[in-house]
Amino acid sequence: MIESTIEVTRSDQLDDPEWDAFLESSPNGEYQQSSIWARVKAGEGWRVDRLMLREAGTILSGFQLLWRESKFGRIGYVSRGPVIANPKASCNSLVHELKEAGCRLELRFLIVQPPEGCQGIESEILGDSAFLPNRLHKVITATWVTPLDGGIDNVVAGIGRRTRQYLASARRRGVSVEIGDRSDLGGFFDLMVKTCERQGVSPNPGDLASFEALWDSFSEDGRIRLGIATYEGRAISAALSLSFGGRLCIWKKGSDPDYLSLHSMEILYHDAMAWGCQRDDLICDYGSLQRATAETLIAGKPLTSAMKCTRDFFNMRFGGHALLLPKAQIYICNPLLRAIYRLTACTFSGSKLTRSRYEW
Question: pTM to 2 decimals?
Answer without folding.
Answer: 0.92
